[in-house]
Amino acid sequence: MKRRLPVVLGVALAAVIALAAAVALGQRSTAKPTAKPAAPDKGRVSPEERRLTQATEALAQGRVDDARDLMDGVNAAPRSNPDDYAYLKAMLTEDGNAHVAALESYLRDIPKGRHRREATLALGTARYARGEYAETENVLSVFSPGVEKDFIGRRAIVQRGLAQLARGDAAGALQFLRSAKAELTGSPEEESYDFAVSQAALRANKPADSIDALRDLLERHPKGDYAPQALYAMALCMEMVGRTGDAAGVFRQVMVRYPRSYEATRARDRGIRVGAAPVTPFPLGGGFAVQVGAFSRRDLADALARDLKAAGVGDVTVRQGTEIPPVFRVRAGAFSSREEARALGERLRRERGFSYTIVPR
Predict the structure, then answer these.
(1) What are the CA-CA distances from residue 182 to residues 30, 190, 226, 296 (Å)?
(2) Please, what sign has the CA dihedral across residues 71, 128, 179, 5?
(3) C-beta pairs of 298-307 under 8 Å, 24+ apart in sequence
(4) How far apart are CA 286 and CA 64, in angstroms?
(5) Among the four 137, 160, 196, 348, which has the fewest Cβ within 10 Å?
């Protein structure tokens, strides 16, 4: 029986892409420093130009209030540097409607501006915040998987996928985000990317795929910004595939590890309670699994793994052994006890005729 899919985007989706100031801050280790505007006369810089340069540097360092204070003293664009002036005015505008209008004006009036990528991402972010998801996709369509090499492009891809998801096209969003896996995996934007993929999979009624993405996130970023949301989403996915015992344990883990989080409140609203006994962490990298096949050919192992996932089996992995030649083992499940793993093994034996072995994860 199909269940109405819960919306797990919440605050996390708005946090995937930083707002205008954070766009300028970016990843300072990868962003190129902003060039200083040229002085009108060699050796002489006007006070306005000096303030403009300082404001540009302040915004790049995330000091938004300082940048605004500096721009208050610049009443007109210096003839030598209209680009930085228009960009800063647009980025530092606090009124939402004026912010969008100023960004659009910058992109329209300065077709070869140095800040077009940052401004485009900021405009897409602002459109998304206003609930204009189709417009967000349109604005960010200039960013495409396979070609983006910097943090601006990677953030834009995640935001574009989230807009598609929020518009209601979960299957399309999942396909789009997966096409960007090569660029996003291992990048500073990996955590937000994995969470976006998990939400797209969840909304596309593919809880097993969502669990895979959430496990990647929690294993690589156990103390990241998305950990509470990811654990809560993991519990929801487990419920959807019938693993109610594991789901209850993960809900309790959310409440113990992040008691003041929004997700902990949602877990309490579901009637989940933390007893006197300590909460056992969900075994992301431990516990037990069910091994249902071992092959000398990777393609045969991958085919079985796809078959199991299509049948709704969760946590399916293909492990390559250290033997020469290697053996490829197909495993399913992530359980805290052998008894829970054995229940899955018996189900697969009855329904699919598989023999199985319980193994440590």
Answers:
(1) 18, 10, 21, 27
(2) positive
(3) 298/328, 300/328, 301/328, 301/329, 301/330, 304/330, 305/330
(4) 44
(5) 348
Please name which of 176, 94, 112 lies closest in space to residue 143, comparing C-alpha atoms: 176
For residue 275, what pLDDT is reported? 67
Structure confidence at residue 324 (pLDDT): 76
Strand partners, 246: none
Sheet bearing 328-335, strands edge to edge: 317-320, 328-335, 288-295, 357-360
Per DSSP, 81 falls in state -
Domains of the chain: 10-184 (1.25.40.10), 288-360 (3.30.70.1070)
Say if strands 317-320 and 328-335 run parallel, antiparallel, or are unpaired.
Answer: antiparallel
What whole-number distance in Å separates Cα of residue 126 and Cα of residue 110?
Answer: 20
Q: Is the pTM of this model over 0.85?
A: no
Do residues 7 and 168 touch, judged by C-beta distance below 8 A? no
pLDDT digits (tens, 9 = 90+) for 302-348: 988 888 888 778 778 888 877 778 888 888 887 767 787 888 888 88
* Overall average pLDDT of the 230-235 stretch: 91
Q: What is the largest CA-CA distance in the chain?
A: 84
DSSP 36: P
Distance CA 39, CA 265 (A): 56
- Give CA–CA dist 12/200, Å, rounded: 13
* pLDDT per position as a tens digit, 237-285: 888 888 887 888 889 888 888 888 999 999 988 888 876 545 555 555 4
Tokens of 169: 């096209």
Cα separation, 329 vs 105, whole angstroms: 57
